Amino acid sequence: MSKPTLSFWQIWNMSFGFLGIQFGWGLQMGNMSAIYETLGAQPDRIPILWLAAPLTGLLVQPIIGALSDRTWGRLGRRRPYFLAGAICSSIALFIMPTSSSLWMAAGLLWILDASINVSMEPFRAFVADKLNDRQRTTGFVMQSFFIGLGATFAGTLPLLFRYLGVEGTTPSGIPLTVKYAFQVGAVAFFLGVLWTVVTTDEYPPEDMAAFDRMKRERRGLAAGVQEIVAAVREMPLTMKQLAVVQFFTWLGLFCMWLFFVPAVARHVFGAVDAQSEIYTRGVEWGNFTFSIYSIVCFLVAFALPRFAAATSRKTVHATALLCGSAGLLSVYVIREPWLLVLSMCGVGVAWASILSMPYAILAGSLPAGRIGLYMGVFNFFIVLPEILQALTFGPLIRTAFGGGNPHAPVYVVLIGGGCLALAALLVSRVHDPVAVAEPPVI
User: Fold this and answer.
1) Span 131-159, pLDDT tens digits
2) Between the N and C ends of the chain, which has fewer C-beta atoms within 10 Å?
3) What's the alpha-carbon Rg for the chain, to the nearest Å?
4) pLDDT higher than 80, residue 423
5) Across the strands, what pairs with 76?
6) Nearest alpha-carbon partner for 86 in 172, 185, 13
7) Spatial distance between the Cα atoms of 31 and 311, rounded to a whole number of angstroms
8) CA distance 172 to 268
9) Phi and psi at residue 174, in whole multiples of 5°?
């Protein structure tokens, strides 16, 4: 099927749901480690409490990808999953800051992560479904733009409520600024995804009889498992090469997400007590600086296709990852909170590329009938490093840095900077099957 060139606003509408999804990711990544500490977790226990996130991604994304490949109904192929995931995610977000215990928060995180993955995974395949080769880079960059914008709003919400005079905590000690941020984010998540569902249609299968036959042949759990195993075994070469880059990229990102905010509170603000006012201020500032990297992400996102056309997608991605590495490594020498803004500028450049360039490179190497499945399998190389981190970083922190060491968070952030640098070096090994010869059409 020859896919028509879509207008700017058509690509805008089909990507708008990522604005809502990022409220979920942004609030979770920016606040969950601090929520865990507030509810009594020691720093060396935080990685294992995040284990829910990668496990749900590992299980949910390839399954949802395979299911959406063979779904067709009134809402199309991918949109039913957008909507179902948004409803469940919004409920979990709304309840999360009312958690009364550590294990309640961990359980809700499990539900939240599973639901976000149900919404998010089909969005990657949606771009490949709807856009031709010349517009795919633009489509993934548009998603980067909305991810950056959504994370900016999510990161600034607690500070906004502080500015409006909100004070105090829930009975379990979670700041009310965080509680209200999560609850506003729940509404934004649902409305953002609903906008895409309502404003964007999908192309039906070209041969409906063949599509129905394929659905019958792949029906059942055993067939689904066999399909996923076969997809892993038959993985395209470009995907194998990108997998290694993704592994170290996301290992570095998870080091940042889990420990950057506590590192700001302890290393830069000097807090020693997770229940103290200065710790709360440090957490709020850490979330604000997260919003800076998100702002940079959406500011530079639309420049990336031009730079890729002038050089290559590989060059853009490697350079961006080095900017992110420099940003994380600089945290160790920073003592003035405002300087963290400069660190997060480097991370923002990396983030804009991480959210678009690997997927733009990958999409050109995937068979049309398995795009959703392969996008789900590609997620393995995001969640496997998080599982590794969850299982090993607790013992690593206790062994290398000492249990309860207040400086442990900043040391883990430095490890993250090293991982991004290694990922940048590995980009040179990747074969881009569809080299960008001219700026993508919008």
Assistant:
1) 877 787 788 888 888 887 887 788 788 88
2) N
3) 21
4) yes
5) 73
6) 185
7) 38
8) 26
9) -75, 130
